[in-house]
Amino acid sequence: MPKAPGSLGAMSVDVLPGSESFSHGGGPFGVLVLHGFTGHPGSMRSLAERCAAVGYSVELPRLPGHGTSVEDMITTTWEDWLKVAEESFDELAVRCGSVAVVGLSMGGGLAARVAELRSVAGCVLINPLVKAPPSEMVEGVDALIAGGMAGFEGSYDATPLAPLRSLFAGVATVSENLSNITAPSLVLVSREDHVITWDRADEFVERVKGPVERVWLEDSYHVATMDNEQALVETLTLDFLARVFA
Question: Which residues pair with 217 in a beta bridge?
């Protein structure tokens, strides 16, 4: 089965309504926005549009295997998702003098990895997956999925096992290299996150070299960009971006 492309891919696939990539050509400051595992750009579109509305150039790619079907996702891996994230960042960097990264959940992990590998203006991580789960969870991933684990954002009715294992391996690499991040970071963490229960970005706050502000969200679950504090998440993000681009 061929791999589903992201915004920079080749062959076409049937994309679910509302799952399309978003791109906006704005001014000299760029923002790369990344969605989460088994999710799609719809979870981040409002935030991306708010960034575009204030004049930023924005790329919100649909990551390979997302926003289509579980079958389409089965052959994709962390490397595929990271490749699209890096290419989207590089495309923005060509036309913008400064680029920040914003990510939700796995998108936060991808954004952190981009920040480890590229020179970014700043990072906004929303309930980010930046620490691998406990070993017993990795070892028991088959049992978790059999028990009804429906994905980090719940857009699919099942979670492909191989991509999930790939995700955990990729996040382990992110965790190992956090000290390479020197840009300012804003981390938004839901007090009650029903998906990522093993980390509240503590390791990120402790290990990155750049300044970090962590804000607790008191009335949001995991997908905070679409929850009760959506407006707050967007306002905090825009305020942070205005500071790092100043």
Answer: 190
Identify the bridge partners of residue 123 per DSSP, sorted by sequence position.
Answer: 101, 185
Residue 62's region, left for phi above 0, alpha for psi from -120 to 50, else beta, is beta
Strands 57-60 and 22-24: antiparallel
pLDDT tens column, 147-159: 444 456 656 666 6
Annotated catalytic residues are 105, 193, 222
22 beta partners:
60
- Is the pLDDT score of 140 beyond 80? no
User: How deeply is 141 buried, as exposed, middle or buried, from its count of CB atoms within 10 A (0-12, 13-18, 19+)?
Assistant: middle
Distance, CA of 193 to CA of 172 (rounded, Å): 20
- The better pLDDT of the pair 201, 160 is held by 201
The token pair that represents 47 in the structure block: 């935030």
Q: Which residues of 54-71 are buried (b: 16+ CB within 10 A; e: fewer)?
A: eebbbbbbbbbbbbbebe
Write the DSSP symbol of residue 118. Answer: S
Can you give the pTM of this predicted structure? 0.89
Dihedral angle sign, alpha carbons of residues 25, 112, 218, 206: negative
CA distances from 56 to 26, 50, 176 (A): 5, 9, 31
Residue 122 backbone phi and psi in degrees, to 5: -175, 165
Domains of the chain with bracketed CATH? 22-245 (3.40.50.1820)
Q: What angle do CA 72, 74, 77 make, to 5 degrees?
A: 110
Helix (H) or strand (E) holding 214: strand 212-217
Give the integer Cα–Cα distance in Å for 101 and 18.
22
First vs last Cα of the chain: how many Å apart?
46
CA distance 192 to 178: 24
